[in-house]
């Protein structure tokens, strides 16, 4: 009688069995906390970008020109933080999940990869290349663990890089707002803000260069040494310091300088591209696909029906510059309701050029009517190319809260069929110069 003896599967390395059957002592000690933070916050972070767009777009469209010039940088920095953290947590969850899967399977199969079984179905050179590519399984698990922790830390570090610019832009915006309460900064507001930003950044760069060239040679008690220390202490107090971002400092001090720079630059470029692309594509009418037989999908193009021009279709997605809109493509009542958003950055300067007396007339009812009639001149309306006499009244968009004006245009006598409403935007200074090309109007098709 033959006795069959159960033998354990062959192992390439007995030491690998104990290593793979339990967590390595070199496993990142914070892996559980990383998973908790990523899993608990990623879904909440995905809800914040639209709220940020609504808040800051509304501020941009309501602010004076001097303040609005600082709102867009603030929006970019805040959006970068939100997208960086959300992208970091999603990628970290995937990488950490991969590590968990590797660790779990290694505990189920403590012998590791059974290369002798795989060799039965593969050639020797292919097997040699495969073993060389994977290497030691314990090292693969450790690399997966470290990779997830690096992504988690670098993502947080990138988000922290935007905190100082947010503080600087917020302070400048507050100062410009206070300035606008007592006087009109005009075009000087943007110039002052840019100058202040350059003073801080160029001054810090000069101090760092000074320290690298002369810091080791300047005596502690000398005038140069005291001036250099006070200058650096001033900037460090404002937050111009690597110690304010220990995550990136730890990474860059343990990796090569060129590698750190490449990683930071490419990740920041990717982040800014993701932020800017929706706004630019919306303005230029870019779309995915080859629609050579259709007109461009942007404002002011004839024979194009855009959902943003109709209250029944435009939804509640925040827009940087909301478009004028009517209620619906099909007008069934006796009046067509037209809402035109009011943008201080465009309409205020336009009123100063077209009808300055109306803008400075005062606060009475007659003065308010004069300003609304001025807006009727600026935002002239035509139906099928025929100028229409409209009376604007102040109103507010119930969805976005954007203030503007509304006109009720009579439809009596308008024939059944397709029609086009055209509306002029507020002109810029260059649009009023002799020889300037005509303004491109908004075109809103509708049917009776």
Helix-strand category:
alpha+beta
Largest sheet: 4 strands, antiparallel
What is the topology, as strand order, of the major beta sheet? 1-2-6-5
**First-to-last CA distance:** 98 Å
- Arithmetic mean of pLDDT: 83
Which percent bin holds the helix content?
55-70%
Beta percentage is 5-15%
The helix count comes to 14
Shape designation: flat
Task: Give me the strand/helix succession.
Answer: HHHHHHHHHHHEEHHHEEEEEE
Number of strands: 8
Radius of gyration: 32 Å
Low-confidence stretches: 1-18
Give a concise summary.
With 448 residues, the protein is an alpha+beta fold. It is 56% helix and 9% strand.
Keywords:
448 residues; alpha+beta; four-stranded antiparallel beta sheet; disordered N terminus
What does this structure look like?
Helix content is 56%, strand content 9%. The chain is built from 14 helices and eight strands. Strands 1-2-6-5 form a four-stranded antiparallel sheet, with no helix packed on it. A four-stranded antiparallel sheet has the order 4-3-7-8, with no helix packed on it. Strand 5 and strand 6 form a beta hairpin. Helix 3 packs antiparallel against helix 6, helix 3 packs antiparallel against helix 7 and helix 3 packs across helix 8. The longest helix is centred in the N-terminal third of the chain and has 44 residues. The radius of gyration is 32 Å and the shape is flat.
